[in-house]
Write a sequence for this structure.
């Protein structure tokens, strides 16, 4: 089979995928339409489309699905698909696919990059080297080995973070909504959320955002953090109560790092960016050459698999 | 037993160890003398000393040993002891001890810190975050996983680097003067030096400096490196032919990182510091809170063990 019309919504043709991938995708449909987000032609274009391809964070709700009576397939170019009404899609027999795990390794390695950069004072080291000051005086550092490394959320990324932390010789503990007993055999200990927060020296947040987990990092959680704790969040910032974070940042006894600045309200970014103990990266954890290759391969592969009657990476 | 006189040569009392450690050390001798490097009283003070304590890189050769007829013990406050004539000391029944492995973890973790900082473009990321530019555009990154990670020298530090690299999922290969078959069971492959250099994406130099290994990184070795190779040297810079390094740096197709800038001649530093693909850190790999604690514990412990008739960390 082949789609009648591929509606590419809120994905720019250039920049998101390479020309070869688009060429391949175009063979999956009789025609292809690109629409920017909020385009007024959306409703009209939905009427006869049987395939929608969307980027991270693009909403495809009940309205859009109802406006597309011929819809069979929604392909999401991201791992997260929180903005797609997957239950309603299922009811309408529309299959939704995502890019499961395409950036797992990239994100996991970034987490260690950012933690080590901070722990070792590399910014200061590079600065000195560049200005021909080769003194190590006043540079201090901590090792990951033997520190308590807490992982909040032991999904695909959390598990990979755990494996790398074990390689560093950390005492790795986790809390997750569902306990992963098999994974515990590797030497990773399950602890209740509150205990994890109170005892960890380093915390990596790798939790999916759901109604249950939204703003789970509230005032009482931030109060529990050890003095000197280092927290890195590469998961959605909606897991964090920003005012509670600010209150703890003010005490200047923790470090908070994040890479989801793009998803934050400007007023929230303003609040946290004042504090030198809050290290804000652009959304770059998911970026690696390998992740980009996976993205192309999985996104195109998902559409092709559906066409061949063997859908893969179905999330509903 | 107790020493008659502790001669502390080229170690400053403040800065090198904490007051509690010095207090303890003072109990090991009837008296203690501190002499700065090159002090004219050295010869006189050596005459009746039975214990010399020296810092990294302090020379204790045939002359000094001959000038100290009562000498029984030389305690080196470093892992490297290349400047001590250990063979002659042995002949004169003088025991030499070092701080074996005190900074192994610190150096191994620093190596990953520096590699990841480069691979993930963290400097640019932090700069953007700080200037409220939250765009990831143009940031590129590579993963360690599945890359060929070559380790030159599989001693204590090299082995620890191998273990961490395995945690990252790299293809770990090594060359060492003596093959470590037991360690190969962990999933680390032995390859001849030339093949290691030609095939590795990332190379960590963890080789001890001996007459055999001096300037082992010569022109032909630098020519063999893959385009895009990343080399980090936390071992002595005398393993490197600086002019050969400069020739390859000029081609701008490798990255070389080092943390032994303090040991280099100024003219050599001038030569390499011109190239942005040469990242020079102050000597900070060995610095961590844990390494400092190990240093105190092992240095004091070595003297105490000798006094109790059970010398430890003896290198001759």
């Amino acid at each position: 089979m082949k789609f009648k019309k591929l509606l590419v919504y809120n994905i720019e043709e250039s920049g998101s995928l390479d020309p070869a991938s688009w060429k391949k995708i175009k063979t999956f449909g009789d025609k292809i339409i690109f629409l920017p987000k909020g385009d007024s032609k959306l409703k009209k274009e939905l009427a006869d489309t049987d395939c929608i391809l969307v980027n991270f964070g693009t909403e495809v709700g009940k309205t859009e699905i109802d406006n597309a009576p011929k819809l069979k397939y929604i392909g999401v170019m991201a791992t997260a698909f929180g903005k797609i009404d997957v239950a309603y899609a299922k009811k309408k027999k529309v299959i939704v696919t995502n890019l499961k795990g395409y950036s797992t390794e990239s994100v996991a390695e970034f987490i260690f990059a950012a933690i080590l950069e901070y722990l070792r004072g590399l910014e200061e080291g590079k600065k000195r080297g560049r200005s021909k000051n080769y003194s190590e005086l006043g540079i201090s550092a901590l090792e990951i080995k033997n520190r308590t490394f807490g992982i909040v959320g032991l999904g695909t990324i959390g598990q990979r973070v755990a494996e790398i932390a074990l390689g560093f010789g950390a005492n790795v503990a986790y809390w997750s909504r569902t306990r992963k007993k098999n994974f515990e055999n590797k030497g990773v200990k399950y602890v209740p959320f509150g205990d994890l927060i109170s005892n960890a020296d380093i915390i990596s947040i790798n939790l999916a955002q759901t109604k249950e987990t939204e703003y789970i990092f509230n005032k009482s959680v931030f109060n529990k953090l050890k003095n000197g704790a280092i927290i890195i969040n590469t998961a959605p910032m909606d897991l964090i109560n920003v005012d509670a974070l600010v209150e703890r940042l003010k005490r200047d006894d923790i470090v908070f790092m994040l890479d989801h600045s793009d998803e934050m309200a400007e007023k929230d970014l303003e609040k946290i960016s004042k504090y030198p103990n809050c290290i804000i990266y652009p959304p770059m954890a998911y970026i690696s050459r390998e992740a980009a290759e996976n993205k192309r391969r999985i996104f195109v592969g998902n559409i092709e698999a559906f066409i061949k009657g063997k859908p893969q990476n179905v999330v509903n």
Observations:
- Residues 197 and 221 of chain B are 7 Å apart (CA to CA).
- Chain B touches chain A through 55 residues (CB under 8 Å).
- Chain B is about 35% helix and 20% strand.
- The first helix of chain B runs from residue 13 to 16.
